[in-house]
UniProtKB/TrEMBL annotation:
Domain of life according to the entry: Bacteria
Species, as recorded: Micromonospora orduensis
Region (Disordered): 156-176
Biased composition, class Low complexity, residue ranges: 156-169
Protein name (database record): Transglutaminase-like domain-containing protein
Amino acid sequence: MTRTRLDRAGPIDWEQVLSRVVLVDDARRRATVSARRAQEFLRLAPDELDRLTAAGLPGANVGGELRYDFRDLYNVGLYAGFGTSQAEQALQVMMRFASRPVEQLLTPRRWTVQIRGECAACRDGGAPEGTWQVQQPDPFPGGGRLLSWQVRPGLARPAPSAGATSPAGHLAREPRPPDLLVEGVVETIGVRRQIRSSRILAEIERFSALNLRWHLLTEEQWPDIERFHRLGVTDCVMASLYLAERMTRLGIEAQTRCGWMTGIVNVSHGWLEVRDEDGAIKTVDLILPQLAGLLAPGSGAYRQLASGSLINRVIRADCPADQPLVTHRHGAGPVDVDLLTEVRPVLDRREQS
């Protein structure tokens, strides 16, 4: 996957930018982002956003104000190639690990995990208190340990006192507790492995030859794998589902997995696990290496390591890639909630000094 960096000193050819982006179709568009927020996210002047809209970026009039779909803004920001949009900067932070020596991706690392969930219906009393389901970290055998994990739903517990800290060491930042608070400590360990099966390697090569571009996609788009692949785009979940089906047809044991990216806020990740001809379960992750090639200079060693190996920058959960890590329900169906997931490193004394 390649990305052309545009020169912001001259006029921007927004039609060229939009030609690289698969926009959300009308039936699934969620126009929730204001024009002002869109300008901030893309780092654009108001007149430049007007030109982008005129070139074809869809917007909807909501209450007399033009609003945009966040997914469109994210993908436009990435493929405009300015290096200044919030989409690019967030992914660059996430992928910094890929430029480091691979030995740093194999050593044991400890992380605090904190998940805070808010449900407006629970808070307002407009619905009976809902139930929460949280997937637990499930480190790969030999790839780490779950050291602690506490799930505390509901508002029954007292509010923390000012300046109090949580068991994971985070400062309690508000007097009223969230509707869901999850805190844990996980140790991750990288494991160097190489895929041996020629059939698995052939499927990986076949997928890579599709030359798909990564896009920010969401749950409602994942079932349309064939359509999005025809349009030339995929994401980690869609790629994992596609490869799992291909591997299963060949009689190869395969299942998708998901988990949390470390060192960043609110980023989950999906990949594939396959049983190789030597009997070992190995990872197939084609999206992180692709993003590394796009955003992390000097990441060649990581990209070579990635096929088959575990790295210590992903926390694995016992959950398929297309299932949510946190679910909240009122009655039979899940409801939308506000989630804040933070995975931060536990620094040893040498790193703190």
